[in-house]
Specification:
150 residues; globular
Length: 150
């Protein structure tokens, strides 16, 4: 399997924001004091992207299919720009994720959001992944071959 560069902190929090529940993002933005103000640079827009896979995980690449994605870009009053790409069609969630991306880049809200929202959502997402792996492992069938004697 090819070596992959470790994700930067921003890549990691953007991934967490993209998979987070909309309600959690709403609560995080609503709970900030002072409340942030932002300008939408690129309104949420929905499109399709091609999802690629690899045979056996590291073999030849192939097109798996298309997936719906919504993207958005915002600018905070201080000039920091945030971006978000979220699976699905939820425009509000995408805008909130972009706002939080911008806030996470600032010194004012970044540390508290990383310690609170990002850490909590990352832990929940990891628990869901582990649960899915556990359920999949329970259905695993091990095949083996027997050599005929005689």
């Amino acid at each position: 399997m090819p070596d992959r560069a470790p994700a930067t902190a921003r890549q990691a929090w953007m991934a967490v924001l993209a998979r987070a529940d909309r309600a959690a993002l709403e609560a995080a933005v609503a709970g900030l004091d002072p409340p942030p103000s932002w300008t939408v640079l690129r309104a949420p827009e929905t499109g399709m992207v091609m999802v690629r896979g690899r045979a056996g995980g590291d073999g030849a690449a192939f097109n798996l299919g298309e997936m719906t994605v919504t993207r958005c870009a915002v600018s905070l009053a201080c000039g920091t720009i945030g971006h978000a790409y979220v699976a699905g069609r939820d425009a509000r969630k995408t805008e909130l994720a972009a706002v939080l991306d911008a806030l996470l880049q600032t010194g004012a809200h970044g540390p508290s959001l990383r310690a609170g929202l990002i850490a909590e959502q990352a832990a929940r997402q990891q628990a869901r992944r582990q649960d899915a792996l556990r359920r999949a492992a329970a259905t695993r069938v091990d095949f083996f071959s027997m050599v005929r004697m005689g």
